[in-house]
Amino acid sequence: MKLAVPVRQAVARMRAYQPPLEGRSGRLRLDFNENTIGCSPGVRRALARLTRTQVSMYPEYGPALRRLARFFRVRPEELLLTNGTDEGLRLVVDTFVESDDAVLLVEPSFALYRFYAELAGTRVVALRYGKGMEFPREEVLRALRARPQLFFLANPNNPTGTLVARNVLRGIREAAPRTLVVVDEAYFEFSGLTVIRWINRYANLIVTRTFSKGMGLAGLRLGCLFANCRLTAALRKAQSPYAVNVAALAAMEAATRDVWFIADYVRQANRSKQELQRGLTRLGVPHWPSAANFVLADFGARAPALLRAFRRRGILLRDRQTDFGRVGYVRITVGTRAQTRLLVRALEKLWPS
Ligand SMILES: Cc1ncc(COP(=O)(O)O)c(C=O)c1O
User: How far is the CA of 85 from the centre of ligand 1 (A)?
Assistant: First the structure.
């Protein structure tokens, strides 16, 4: 049937974003970089304690904002709670980008940067990571001279796992006083590198964090965005009033108390990453160093069959061929050491020596 009303041209031009989200429950989920052991027991208890009244009320954000501000050591005005980082990214585009502006990306990267830029009908200027997954620093500095309105940078980057060092970030920020630089620190718990402390030094810096990865709350959709008060005031103006729900607030409060749980999980994941990398090296599978809770590997032409074989064994990995334009690239989330050992044992059986 024909559409009664035509969609906006920007939407008509876009390719749909369809991540393989269905049928994952009950499997070993090494495909979306989630926390593979679930949220902390404290989060479960906090959710169970939610009262009928709390559920029936629109959420109040003051106490949660104050708690998070203490946790991250910023002022409450420098912080915005968002419905996942995804909402934060969209909010930045909605607030600051006109359709004739340019948005700078370095790809492959998190798909939603391009998605929101295209949705806004802007011009996307996309540079590429090198063959060895090097960050194209000089090209970025050159592209910034054309003053794009926005530069999205995931640090560490997904799916390459690469981390841009603090001095390079400083150079980028200083080369681009008229560009909003969004540093997405979704994998901070694993990399340990943050530039949150810079938000008051630099008027054009926005930092985003998520509770979806190390913190184990992906299903509740909670992220936060940090910037100086002027930027957050503008962003707040464009945000839906109740974007974050009351269950996410209760879970956040408990998660920020259960820091031991997160620290223990991160320690395990970082150790099992080394184990996975050793396994891949032993089997002769090319892979890249990673500062996040995943490893990008190149299984060549056998990747599609391998992914299917893993799926039959109940292990989900993420096919990243569309990022690189050829089969082979697979992103593997690391979880506990037991989970990684299971994966490596399966790989040893499936991968011809
Ligand atoms: C770099 C990066 N940013 C943001 C997200 C999404 O975060 P959220 O679940 O908070 O929307 C992801 C998820 O894969 C990611 O890899």
Answer: 6
Indicate if 14 and 55 belong to the same structural domain: no
pLDDT digits (tens, 9 = 90+) for 98-133: 999 999 999 999 999 999 999 999 999 999 999 999
- Best residue for ligand 1 mutational test, from 39, 109, 112, 226 (most atoms within 8 Å of Cβ): 112
Please work out whether the CB of residue 82 comes within 6 Å of at least one atom of ligand 1. no
Q: How far is the CA of 33 from the centre of ligand 1 (A)?
A: 9
SS3 readout for 39-106: CCHHHHHHHHCCCHHHHHCCCCCHHHHHHHHHHHCCCHHHEEEECHHHHHHHHHHHHHCCCCCEEEEE
**Whether 92 and 156 share a structural domain:** yes
Q: How many domains does the chain have?
A: 2
pLDDT band at 227 (very low <50, low <70, confident <90, very high): very high
- Range of the structural domain that residue 293 is part of: 9-38+260-350
The overall pTM is greater than 0.70? yes
298/343 same-domain check: yes
The per-residue DSSP string of 280-342 comes to: HHHHT--B---SSSEEEEE-GGGHHHHHHHHHHTTEEEEE-HHHHTSTTEEEEE---HHHHHH
Q: Is 110 in the pocket of ligand 1 (CB under 6 A)?
A: yes
Q: Which of 210, 211, 331 for a ligand 1 pocket mutation test, highest count of atoms within 8 Å of Cβ?
A: 210
Q: Are 10 and 119 in contact (CB under 8 A)?
A: yes
88 CA closest ligand 1 atom index: 11
Q: What is the pLDDT of residues 284-313, one digit of tens each?
A: 999 999 999 999 999 999 999 999 999 999
Which of 24, 113, 153, 213 to mutate to test ligand 1, by most ligand atoms within 8 A of the CB atom?
213
In the listed set 201, 228, 258, which residue is the last one of a domain according to the structure?
A: 258
CB 184 near ligand 1, within 6 Å: yes
Residue bearing the CA closest to ligand 1, atom 14: 32
2 within a domain of the structure (yes/no): no
